[in-house]
Write a structure and sequence with these properties.
The complex is a heterodimer. By secondary structure, chain A is an alpha+beta fold. Helix content of chain A is 34%, strand content 10%. Chain A is built from eight helices and seven strands, in the order E-E-H-E-E-E-E-E-H-H-H-H-H-H-H. Chain A has a five-stranded mixed β-sheet. The longest helix of chain A has 16 residues. By secondary structure, chain B is mainly alpha-helical. A two-stranded antiparallel ribbon of chain B has the order 1-2. In chain B, helix 2 crosses helix 7 and helix 5 crosses helix 7. About 3% of the residues of chain B have low confidence. Classes of the chains: A alpha+beta, B mainly alpha. Chains A and B meet through strand 3, strand 4, helix 6, helix 7 and helix 8 of A and helix 1, helix 2, helix 4 and helix 7 of B.
């Protein structure tokens, strides 16, 4: 099979970008989308042209490095799948495919289809962790966690931080990512001591990065390669309100036991 | 104060403000609808209700100022959030965008703006009673008597007002947009305030849809019923009062007719 690619090319962050059209060489329909780009790049390099820059790493859907908005949908035509696990058999022979980078002010484009997602790292660094070492794998049932909570926490922990939620949202809002990271710890006992500090710090960092606000359009949920639910956004909204109402940690009173 | 400042500075806090003022404004929408539906009763029913509201200026102005501050807060938060959202994506997509979003959710700013314009028209139409914009005449001249007291004939004003087809059309368009705004906003406010889980979300969205439809039918029924002939006889008599000069003799006007009816 062969396809036509309409690809966003941009030399660097400052240079203005634009679309260019490329004809692919003969492709195997069982190639992944990224393998197709590899083949196109090999062809471009052979002709002495600058290959198309794109992000990729594990290519098995767990690292969150691949991006791309394919025909208007982040991570291509399927639900619950990242670009790296999208295959050329999902496209018709001879079709034109529009490939764009993830677009948001907090995700500046570095080159072509590669954008800088360090804003997500800074949000994580603001509170997406547990400060105190919780020990290695505990014995089973030494810390009791309700099944529903552990299931939900694992759903949230599926987030690979790819940024598709931001790319899809009409407001470029990062609420789904931040709420998944907040809920992941907020649902487990080890995350409780810092629960309120975490949500306020992460939301504050999210706002500082310049992401938009949530208008409950549902785009993020629809494109998330890990099918993370909007429910987590509601959970974060609730946690943030409770955290603000309760205020910061109280100063320890003098004296007392011990 | 510190807490409020912290709330207002965060995008989540502004969404809380949108949601809470939305609840208050929805409360008004329901209350106003119940008041208006009295037009389906005898003229005295809605006239005495209107007179009751007018006779409690403290209550009336308290409610008006409360609503006005809710409207102001709702609009200021909406404008600031919209500007934030626009600035978060300086370059848009060529291959289509907002995949998987509910279409009503994409037009909240538009539907909200039209509703605001309508509210201003509605206030000029029936509250300030500007004769130039109603296509009928001076509504201030419509008077009737209740228990011997001269009061405004709100019933006649509504009937005459909605007998003008373009006025009814404006109201119906505005109600359609209110329906769109509510059918997304009512469920979303639960999300913004954090009252949602996977069990309750389908119930919340379904209930919001039903309530929005009921509100739409309720409001739309009034102009439609008037165009279909509701209160036509009453309006005929009231129209005579509009064309005549200031009411001197009660017998020549609707006031006299109403007096007869009350006896």
């Amino acid at each position: 099979m062969k396809v036509t690619l309409k690809v966003w090319r941009q030399k660097d962050q400052k240079a203005p970008g634009g679309f260019q059209i490329y004809q692919s060489p003969e492709l195997n329909p069982n190639m992944s989308f990224l393998e197709m780009l590899d083949v196109v790049n090999e062809d471009l390099a052979g002709r002495g042209e600058d290959p198309i820059a794109f992000d990729h790493d594990c290519r098995e859907g767990i690292c969150g490095t691949c991006s791309l908005v394919i025909d208007g949908k982040p991570h291509g035509p399927h639900q619950g799948v990242a670009t790296c696990q999208t295959y050329m058999r999902s496209f018709r022979n001879g079709v034109e495919i529009v490939i764009e980078p993830f677009r948001a002010r907090p995700f500046p484009i570095i080159k072509d289809l590669v954008c800088d997602r360090k804003s997500f790292d800074r949000i994580q660094q603001a509170g997406g962790f547990i400060s105190v070492r919780t020990g290695s794998t505990p014995d089973a049932n030494s810390i009791l966690i309700p099944k529903e909570n552990s299931d939900l926490a694992m759903d949230a922990a599926q987030c690979i931080g790819c940024g598709a939620c931001v790319a899809a949202c009409k407001n470029a809002s990062a609420m789904l990512f931040v709420s998944a990271k907040v809920s992941h710890f907020g649902l487990l006992p080890q995350g409780q001591p810092e629960r309120h500090r975490r949500v306020t710090a992460m939301v504050q960092q999210m706002d500082e990065e310049g992401f938009g606000a949530c208008t409950v359009t549902g785009s993020c949920e629809a494109v998330c390669p890990k099918s993370i639910s909007l429910d987590f956004i509601a959970r974060m909204n609730r946690d943030f309100a409770v955290a603000l109402l309760k205020g910061g940690p109280k100063k320890p009173s003098s004296g007392g036991a011990g | 104060m510190n807490l409020l400042r912290q709330l207002w500075r965060s995008s989540l806090g502004k969404k809380y403000a949108m949601a809470l003022t939305g609840v208050a404004l929805f409360g008004f929408v329901v209350g106003h609808l119940l008041g208006n539906l009295q037009v389906f009763g005898a003229p005295e029913l809605i006239n005495s209700y209107a007179h009751f509201l007018k006779s409690k200026p403290g209550l009336l102005w308290g409610a008006r100022l409360g609503l006005l501050s809710c409207v102001a807060l709702h609009i200021v938060a909406a404008v600031q959030l919209t500007l934030l959202n626009r600035s978060a994506r300086p370059i848009g997509y060529a291959g289509g965008s907002a995949y998987g979003s509910a279409w009503k959710s994409r037009y909240m700013a538009l539907s909200g703006s039209v509703i605001l314009a309508f509210v201003i028209y509605h206030l000029l139409h029936f509250t300030a009673m500007q004769p130039g914009i109603n296509g009928v005449g001076d509504f201030n001249k419509l008077k009737t008597t209740l228990a011997g007291e001269p009061v405004a004939d709100v019933y006649a004003m509504m009937i005459l007002g909605f007998q003008v087809p373009w006025v009814s059309l404006v109201y119906l368009i505005a109600q359609t947009l209110l329906f769109l705004h509510l059918s997304h906003g009512l469920s979303s406010l639960f999300q913004s305030l954090g009252f949602r889980n996977h069990v309750w979300w389908p119930r919340i969205t379904a209930a919001s849809q039903i309530v929005s439809v009921v509100v739409f039918i309720g409001y739309a029924s009034i102009p439609v019923a008037v165009l279909a002939g509701l209160g036509r006889d009453h309006a005929q008599k009231a129209k005579a009062a509009l064309s005549s000069q200031p009411l001197e003799s009660p017998e020549s006007s609707i006031a006299g007719v109403a007096k007869e009816a009350l006896k």
